[in-house]
Design brief:
With 471 residues, the protein is mainly alpha-helical. A hairpin with an 8-residue loop joins strand 1 and strand 2. Strands 2-1-4-3 form a 4-stranded mixed β-sheet, covered by helices on one side. The longest helix has 30 residues. It has 15 helices and 4 strands. This is Type VII secretion integral membrane protein EccD. It is found in: Cell membrane.
């Protein structure tokens, strides 16, 4: 082998082992022990090394043959073995390594601006556009039916009811085929809108008397109750459709509050008194929501035995494995509906303007704001906490508008300006609240409840009603 290098000006020779690999990842390599000159550039040694291994350079037109150490270091073409620090007996590899892929010089503008967040971008756009179009069409049909109900309530009710049946069929098909949650939610919202419109069209809608007469609110209550029952019945005990269960519980809860308002309007013939009574009922519904959700999900807590007695196993019923999740979903629905009703009927009390003393409605609104703010921080579920906080925010904005139109702009500014820094709430997680602060918040919440209920009773003139009933 040493005679192969006779054409070079030989200095010192070094004996190394050369492995031949066509590509860097090749495992089966030919090898040979060679004596190589140490003062010759590596680029000049590589062709003769390839010839020893019977590698024809013409078979690899785009090859970039290199020598590499066993550690993976590439030897520079202009260096000698001395320059590279190769020791006697070291193992080298001759490889065909094309090197790194060069950076592209041409770019496809279409690929550069393509949204890579979603691989099915067109499908996502279709989902958004489809759901939006369906909701817009539903709202249009409902509005047209309500407008027609003032002249022909029967025809208006028939139109909205036929549309309701068509959407209900689509919802049933979507549930059977396990459609995407967004599609299910869109269809269920369509059912809620068309069901409510059908009820209002059936009794005849008069916008000027919707809050002062009981038939419209009673129709809304019946429509929401029927829709909520259909949603819950269509989802069995083992069902895992969160949206259906949550909207069903929310519809039933809203049916209760609107039913209370309709009964109060029929009894008192006064929207302010009815709104106050309904707002107080919504507070009670919010407080009872955890117990109602647990019972509705089929979870039964056995009686606690006295000291020394054992639990009665016969009182422990079998529950579905989905019962805890369903209880949480039902809780979300009840609280979303309860807090929404609380804010709506608080606004009725504020803006109806039929109460002589304006300080009682303001005091009730302030207590509702405090209650919602603290209660939202104590919720362990995101949906319930968000809805409760937004209900309080709606009342704050309503009070600010009322004070602005009454000329009390400093009060309005004092309510709205601090809301500019509302994003700072994210910096104070509920888990960081100290036990002392938590106890103070619980006491404040209890005080706000103790304020809302008596004020609501005063506004509703409930004491006078009770005393007159017994006289």
């Amino acid at each position: 082998m040493q005679n192969s290098w006779g054409k070079y000006m030989l200095g010192e020779l070094i004996r190394v082992r050369i492995d031949a690999a066509h590509m860097p990842e090749d495992a089966n390599r030919a090898h040979a022990d060679l004596a190589l000159p140490t003062n010759v550039a590596i680029a000049a040694l590589v062709p003769d090394i390839l010839q020893i291994f019977d590698i024809d350079i013409a078979d690899f037109p785009l090859a970039q043959w290199q020598l590499r150490t066993a550690a993976g270091t590439i030897l520079l073409a202009d260096d000698t073995l001395n320059d590279a620090g190769i020791a006697p007996g070291e193992r080298l590899v001759v490889i065909n390594d094309p090197g790194p892929v060069p950076k592209p010089r041409l770019f496809d503008a279409a690929d550069a601006i393509t949204d890579t967040t979603y691989t099915d971008g067109i499908g996502t756009a279709d989902l958004v556009v489809g759901c939006t179009a369906a909701l817009v069409a539903t709202a249009s049909i409902a509005a047209a039916s309500l407008s027609l109900s003032s002249t022909d309530s029967t025809l208006a009710a028939a139109i909205s009811f036929i549309a309701l049946l068509a959407v209900a069929g689509g919802l049933r098909l979507a549930l059977l085929r396990s459609a995407k949650p967004a599609i299910v939610m869109s269809l269920e919202l369509q059912v809620l809108i068309l069901g409510t419109a059908s009820g209002l069209c059936f009794v005849g809608l008069d916008l000027h008397r919707i809050l002062t007469d009981w038939p419209p609110t009673a129709a809304i209550s019946v429509a929401l109750a029927v829709t909520g029952l259909v949603f819950l019945i269509s989802n069995t005990d083992d069902g895992d459709n969160r949206i259906t269960v949550t909207l069903g519980a929310a519809s039933l809860s809203a049916a209760v509050t609107f039913g209370i308002y309709a009964a109060a309007v029929a009894l008192f013939q006064n929207s302010v008194q009815s709104g106050a009574l309904t707002a107080a009922s919504a507070v009670i519904l919010i407080l009872l929501a955890p117990s109602l959700a647990i019972k509705a999900a089929g979870i039964r807590v056995p009686k606690v035995p006295a000291a020394g007695e054992s639990f009665d196993d016969s009182e422990t019923p079998e529950i579905s494995h989905n019962a805890p999740k369903r209880a949480g979903w039902i809780l979300d629905g009840i609280l979303c509906s309860g807090t929404g009703s609380l804010s709506i009927f608080t606004l009725v009390v504020l803006f109806s303007g039929a109460y002589a003393n304006r300080w009682w409605p303001l005091g009730m609104a302030a207590a509702v704001i405090v209650f919602c703010a603290i209660h939202s921080r104590g919720q362990a579920r995101k949906v319930a906490s968000t809805c409760t906080a937004l209900a309080g925010l709606a009342v704050i904005v309503a009070v600010a508008f009322q004070q602005w139109f009454e000329g009390n702009w400093p009060v309005s500014a004092g309510l709205v300006v601090p809301m500019l820094a509302a994003t700072a709430l994210a910096a104070f997680p509920a888990s960081r609240i100290s036990p002392t602060t938590r106890r103070i918040a619980e006491l404040t919440e209890a005080c706000s409840i103790a304020v809302i209920l008596p004020i609501a009773a005063i506004i509703a003139e409930f004491p006078e009603f009770v005393s007159g009933f017994f006289q």
